[in-house]
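Reopening this ticket.

The earlier resolution said the output was attached, but the attachment link was broken on my side. Pasting everything inline this time so it's all in one place.
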Amino acid sequence: MKKILLAAGILLSYNGMVSAQTAAPAEVKTAIAVDNAFEKLVARKGIKDGFLAVADPEGIVFKPNAVKISEFYGTIAKQPGTLTWQPKFARISASGDLAFTAGPYIYQQSKKDDEIYGECVSIWRSDAQGKLKLLVNLGIQHPEPAKEVIEDIKDPEATKASASKDPFKGKNIILATDKQFNDALLKSTAGAYKEFLSPEGRYYFPGFEPMTGSDQTMRFVQNQAIYITAATANAGRSASSDLAYSYGTARIKKGNIVSNFNYVRVWEMDKRHKWNILLEIFSAVEN
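Inline output:
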């Protein structure tokens, strides 16, 4: 009898392992739905209450430097104006615990004011109940777009990667990867992007419409002749080890002009298990 029970226990344990390994990955429509609900909430309750309603306890915005969403919006009476946006670029981790959405926005302070155009990026992290909450939000401004943003919304591939027993290991790997890219920028801006930017990567820079793909991004970096020095502030990684984020500060030199920026990066692991930048956005810090 003991042998039968032991065999049954082993079989149940094995079946549990197989089930965990073959579980269907999360679907990106979950992140799109959360982003759309956020946009509707802002339209109904206003910008301040909308952000506070979806914020992760550690969620940040850049105003102009990184500040907790709860601290910034919790201390202002109201943020006037209307804000609308559309997610056009999105991913979610196979484990469903990390996602990002990005796309064009339109802001108008009042009906008599001109519309302001730009791009916004939101990073979402699941809470204890599995609900995605806003972890990072950053936007840039550019002239009225001359063309539609190319849509790129994909589900994650199935993965057998398991969560690390060390909760700090995943974060430390991304911190090190982000620093490695920053070190590469010191040697060659174009060379760093050639090595680290995904072929599908997108590049968001103030005053310019989004650049899609590594070729277009490389042309922009080379034509602008910019020199970037950057410092990592924080990072995180999904439990399924396929999606990650990082953010920090940067100084960008063009000719004799040096300006301060914040940056946010989204990282994606490729089939060779190499981390590539899927999205990078720079936001100017005005003096």
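Reporter confirms the inline version is readable. Residues 169-285 form a domain with the Nuclear Transport Factor 2; Chain: A, fold (CATH 3.10.450.50). The CA atoms of residues 86 and 103 lie 5 Å apart.
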